[in-house]
Design a protein that fits this description.
The complex is a heterodimer of chains A (195) and B (151). Helix content of chain A is 69%, strand content 0%. Chain A is an all-alpha fold. Chain A has 2 domains: 1-91, RNA polymerase sigma factor, region 2, helix turn helix motif (Rna Polymerase Sigma Factor, Chain: A), CATH 1.10.1740; 96-195, Arc Repressor Mutant, subunit A, CATH 1.10.10.10. By secondary structure, chain B is mainly α. In chain B, 58% of the residues lie in helices and 0% in strands. In chain B, α1 crosses α2 (27-38). Residues 133-151 of chain B have low confidence and may be disordered. Classes of the chains: A mainly alpha (195), B mainly alpha (151). At the A-B interface, α1, α2, α3, α5 and α6 of A face α1, α3, α4 and α5 of B.
C-alpha cells in the first residue's frame, strides 16, 4: 500500500484521527529533531523545538490549502525559524571570517567511542558557523533539500544559497582540518585511500 | 542556474557549494557537470579536498527520536470533534477509504437488492388466496369485504 500524502494526513488529522497524527509524527519528527540538533547543538533543545513545531502542524492541519506550498518546505521553515529564534535569544553569533577554534568536547566525551567523539567535535564545529551558513548546510547537506527549496526557507536566491554553502564548507574545513581528531582522515584523503 | 552552459568554473562552484558527489548537485546541471568533471583530471585534487569534507560531515550522527517523544507530540495535539467509532473502524481497516466508502455502500445496496429479488422473501405467494383477499381489502380500505371476498 502506498503511503498517504502529507495533504491526506492533514485532512485526517483535522478530523481528529489519531492514527494520522501518529503517521505524521513518525514521518517528520526525525527530520525536525535532526535539523534542531544540528542547528542548536543540543538534543534537549532540538526536542523542544520539535514539540513546538508539531503544535503548529496540528493547528495548521485544518487550515492547510493544497497547492499553495509544499508541506515539507513549510515544516522545515517553521523548524528553522524556531531554531533561529532560540539562537538569537541565547548568544551572540560569530562574524563571518572570524577565527574559529573548536572547543574540546565535554569531559565525559573521553569515555565515548571514537565515532561518538568525532560526532561531538563536528557538532561543536557546526555551532561555530554563523547561523545562516549553518542553516544552509543543514538544509542542503543533511536534510537533502533542493537548492530552490532551501532558498525559499532562507528567504534568498539560489545563488546566495550557493555562496552560503561554499562559505560554510570552507569554514568547516578550516576548523576540522586543524583539529587533531581528524588528522587521520586527512591523511587518508591525501593518500587517495578514501572511497 | 538553468540555461547556462556548464564550464570549469561552474563545476568548481558546484563542488564548493554541494561537495564532491554529483548526486548532490542540482539536477538540471548534474549530468553535464559530471561529464565535464570526468574530462578534467586537473580538478581531481580539488574534488578530493571536497570529498574529505563530505566524509567528515557524515561523521555527525543524530539518533532517531524515541517512542516517548512521539507519544508526547501526538498527545499534545488539540482534540477536534470526537470521531464516530464506526468511521474510526472503517479508517483503521481502509486508511484510504475516501474513494471506497461510496462505492462500498453502493455495492452493499445492490447485493441486498439482488438477495431480496432472488429469495422472493417479500413476494406474495400466487396461490395464497387469503393473502390476495387481504391485499384487495387493504387496497379498497374495506374491512367488510375481507370475510366473503371469494364467496
Amino acid at each position: 500500500m502506498t503511503e498517504p500524502s502529507d495533504e491526506a494526513l492533514l485532512r485526517r488529522i483535522a478530523e481528529g484521527e489519531e492514527r494520522a497524527a501518529r503517521l505524521m509524527a513518525v514521518r517528520y519528527l526525525p527530520r525536525i529533531v535532526a535539523l534542531g540538533e544540528r542547528m542548536l547543538g543540543s538534543r534537549a533543545e532540538a526536542e523542544d523545538v520539535a514539540q513546538e513545531a508539531f503544535m503548529r502542524i496540528w493547528k495548521m492541519a485544518a487550515e492547510w490549502q493544497p497547492g499553495k506550498a509544499r508541506f515539507s518546505t513549510w515544516v522545515h521553515k517553521v523548524a528553522a525559524n524556531l531554531c533561529i529564534d532560540r539562537l538569537r535569544r541565547k548568544r551572540p553569533q560569530p562574524l563571518d571570517g572570524e577565527a574559529l577554534n573548536i572547543a574540546d568536547p565535554a569531559p565525559d566525551a573521553e569515555a565515548q567511542t571514537a565515532g561518538a567523539q568525532q560526532s561531538a567535535r563536528l557538532s561543536a564545529a557546526l555551532q561555530k558557523l554563523p547561523e545562516r551558513q549553518r542553516l544552509a548546510i543543514v538544509l542542503v547537506h543533511y536534510q537533502e533539500l533542493g537548492n530552490v527549496e532551501a532558498a525559499g526557507i532562507l528567504g534568498t536566491s539560489v545563488e546566495a544559497v550557493e555562496s552560503l554553502l561554499a562559505r560554510a564548507r570552507r569554514g568547516l574545513r578550516k576548523i576540522l582540518l586543524e583539529d587533531e581528531a581528524f588528522e587521520s582522515l586527512h591523511s587518508h584523503a591525501a593518500s587517495g585511500e578514501m572511497r | 542556474m538553468t540555461g547556462s552552459a556548464v564550464n570549469e568554473a561552474r563545476v568548481k562552484t558546484l563542488i564548493d557549494a554541494y561537495g564532491a558527489d554529483p548526486a548532490r548537485w542540482p539536477l538540471e546541471e548534474r549530468a553535464e557537470a559530471a561529464a565535464l568533471l570526468a574530462r578534467l583530471p586537473e580538478l581531481d585534487a580539488y574534488r578530493n579536498e571536497a570529498l574529505l569534507l563530505d566524509t567528515l560531515l557524515e561523521t555527525h550522527e543524530v539518533s532517531l527520536p524515541d517512542a516517548a517523544l512521539i507519544e508526547r507530540v501526538v498527545a499534545a495535539r488539540p482534540r477536534g470533534p470526537r470521531e464516530n467509532p464506526l468511521r474510526a473502524l472503517i479508517k483503521f481497516l481502509m486508511p484510504d477509504e475516501a474513494a471506497w466508502l461510496p462505492a462500498g455502500a453502493l455495492a452493499a445496496s445492490m447485493a441486498f437488492g439482488i438477495y431480496v429479488g432472488m429469495s422472493g422473501a417479500f413476494m406474495p405467494a400466487a396461490s395464497d388466496t387469503e393473502t390476495q383477499a387481504a391485499l384487495m381489502s387493504l387496497a379498497l380500505a374495506d374491512t367488510a369485504v375481507e370475510d366473503n371476498w371469494n364467496e
